[in-house]
Amino acid sequence: MSHLRAVPNGPTGPSTAPPRSGSASSVRVEAPGKVNLFLSAGAPGPDGYHPLTTVFQAVRLIETVTARRQSAQNHGTVTLTLEEPDAAVPIDASNLAVRAADLLAEVTGVNEGVDLLLRKRVPVAGGMAGGSADAAATLVACNALWGTNLPLPELSALASRLGADVPFPLTGATAVGHGRGDLVTPIMTRGSYHWVFALAEQGLSTPAVFRRFDVLPGAGEPAVRDIPEALTAALRAGDVRALADSLHNDLQAAAIDLRPELARVISVAEEAGALRAIVSGSGPTIAALVEDAGGAQRVSRALKASGLVAGVLRADAPVAGARVVG
Ligand code: C5P
Questions:
Q1: Which of ligand 1's atoms lies nearest the C-alpha of 180?
Q2: What parts of the chain have a pLDDT lower than 50?
């Protein structure tokens, strides 16, 4: 299954250099999904985006993008194939990975095209930025395959044009996000954290969750909050219990208002021993922070037995950002 589309013929961006090409015939890149440890949103600005203060943590649910040099037959197009076809993931030009390849081609003047192969492990439309990780991985893969070699700050600027959550998976680990969530600054943390993720049958649309946030009492009042010192101190100390106490997501009430059963999923996880369970990003994935592998097992078992969830995943965090692995 693949979709073919044309990319511009020749340079259209600021670069006037002749098209370059790296030496590899394919480049494989991994990029992580994320959970928001803290998210405070203000009232939307004129562009419709909400100012955010957030803390991202990259989790070991890994998207893999393989960018392949094209056969003469396809030359100059961007194609996308899913390793496991999924009706919920478009493979046309609306896919963020295709848009990432198109954008990099446009600004660098590359016209050789690319075949992208995508392996997905982050829940689709789950509030864990899987599509954003695909876009970030594609930028890194094509940047190497095409030999364009843009430095990270330039890739990050392109990433934020693709979506508010795309810069973070380039950086990975743990980072503060300001602006729309796209201005990312890494922060110091110690230790490793264990998460259990409860998946929903149906994804939630991020714009729909923000719209519900806007009409719930107290939205954007007071304006976007600072990250609590207790949270950054917990991360610096590697103190999982203190981190659990500091977890917060302003979008949680909106996601639960749209999907009331998420409140029950949170209760099941916490009654089974999770230190805290919260909505991940705009949901509907529930992220349960647990003390150790034993806790992860107990919470996973309880969630599966509840009949309330479509699946359960376990992952440790933090992990590195987008990187070439082959
Ligand atoms: O940037 P991205 O395309 O990922 O955002 C998807 C949608 O989520 C936006 O169109 C907007 O409705 C909402 N959003 C927002 N404020 C943010 C990030 C996203 O309102 N900071």
A1: 21
A2: 1-19
Atom of ligand 1 nearest to the CA of 50: 16
Domain boundary among 161, 187, 213: 187
- Check residue 220 and give its pLDDT: 62
Catalytic position from the list 102, 115, 165, 182? 165
By most ligand atoms within 8 Å of CB, the mutation choice from 210, 214, 249 for ligand 1 is 210
242-247: list long-range contacts, CB under 8 Å, 24+ apart.
Answer: 243/37, 243/193, 243/289, 244/275, 244/276, 244/289, 245/276, 246/37, 246/38, 247/37, 247/38, 247/276, 247/278, 247/289
What is the 75 CA–ligand 1 centroid distance (Å)?
Answer: 34
**Which pLDDT does position 4 carry in this prediction?**
33
**325 within some domain:** no
CATH code of the domain in which 291 resides: 3.30.70.890
Which range of residues forms the domain containing residue 50?
Answer: 5-11+20-187
Q: Last residue of a domain, which of 143, 167, 187?
A: 187
